[in-house]
């Protein structure tokens, strides 16, 4: 029986959980960054019990905990801080009985992807040892994290099936897998249906984010995007994130592929729609945790995404 549930990525609050239930969502990816309401270093068992009671009251399942830093940062202090905190996120997932932690692979942007592999192997072999002890799965998202406006550095090696194959060869743990986001594959020219069919057994979580390709902009800037004018929002000028149904992802084909590979996880909308957030005031975005906080202020994109996807997910469409 299909158990795929539909939710969104957000930070825990009573208001957010109540909103999720009112719309019809059945799950959430919860932010577990140090500045979130689920700080893995400091949150008490008492507070966790209160949060879990609230989630149960509204019938909201936690799909995964999200923490996306750069573990391979060339700044040793930053990389060690991120690695130490991630191990506590694994412990937090165990305390909450959440089966998956979603994250990035990381990258030293001054080295090639090939030259990053030894450090990736060292870090994630250790991560997987801890994950296996706690029966937690690690899902690596496929966002390249390319900063195009300044130095065009990439902060995550796990951007393509070619790289995934090497990652899983180097760290052959059953607890290491993927968090698939089709939006990043569209703008890179990667076939997301083919990728799902090839790596279906390694998909532990799915981000539902759409992407809109602005061909008239790309025709002038090329693949690298705008270089002399900073692009609005989170894209590269010629592509921008959209809520599901408002971009170029074929969600029927994507969900069909997930069903075909017997995907057992949930689908959570990641709101990075630069069109809808024009209706609200966005503060400065310094890191990924800020995106979750700021973009979630706009609820319209989440509601519209729910309306589009709930018709296509069998377990969500049957009520």
From TrEMBL:
Pfam families: AP_endonuc_2. InterPro entries: IolE/XylAMocC-like, Xyl_isomerase-like_sf, Xyl_isomerase-like_TIM-brl. GO terms for molecular function: isomerase activity. Keywords: Isomerase. Residues 17-290 form the Xylose isomerase-like TIM barrel domain. It comes from the Bacteria. The keyword Isomerase applies. This is Sugar phosphate isomerase/epimerase. It comes from Paenibacillus paeoniae.
């Amino acid at each position: 029986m299909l158990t795929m549930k539909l939710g969104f990525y957000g930070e825990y609050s009573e208001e957010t959980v109540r909103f999720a239930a009112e719309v019809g969502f059945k799950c959430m990816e919860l932010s577990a960054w140090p500045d979130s309401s689920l700080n893995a270093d400091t949150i008490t068992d008492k507070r966790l019990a209160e949060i879990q009671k609230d989630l149960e009251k509204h019938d909201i399942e936690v799909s995964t905990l999200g923490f996306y830093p750069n573990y391979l940062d060339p700044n040793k202090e930053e990389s060690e801080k991120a690695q130490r905190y991630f191990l506590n996120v694994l412990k937090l997932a165990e305390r909450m009985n959440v089966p998956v932690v979603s994250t990035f692979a990381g990258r030293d942007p001054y080295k090639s992807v090939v030259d990053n592999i030894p450090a990736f192997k060292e870090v994630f072999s250790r991560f997987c040892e801890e994950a296996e002890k706690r029966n937690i799965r690690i899902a690596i998202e496929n966002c390249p994290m390319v900063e195009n406006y300044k130095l065009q550095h990439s902060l995550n090696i796990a951007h393509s099936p070619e790289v995934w194959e090497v990652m899983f060869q180097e760290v052959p743990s059953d607890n290491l897998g993927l968090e698939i986001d089709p939006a990043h594959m569209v703008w890179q020219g990667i076939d997301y249906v083919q990728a799902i069919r090839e790596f279906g057994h390694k998909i532990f979580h799915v981000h539902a984010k759409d992407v809109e390709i602005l061909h008239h902009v790309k025709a002038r800037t090329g693949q690298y995007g705008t270089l002399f004018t900073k692009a609005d929002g989170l894209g590269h000028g010629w592509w921008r994130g959209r809520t599901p149904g408002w971009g170029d992802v074929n969600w029927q084909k994507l969900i069909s592929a997930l069903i075909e590979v017997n995907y057992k996880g949930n689908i959570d909308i990641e709101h990075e729609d630069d069109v809808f957030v024009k209706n609200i005031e966005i503060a400065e975005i310094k890191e990924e945790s800020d995106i979750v906080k700021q973009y979630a202020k706009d609820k319209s994109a989440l509601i519209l995404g729910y309306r589009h996807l709930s018709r296509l997910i069998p377990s969500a469409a049957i009520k």
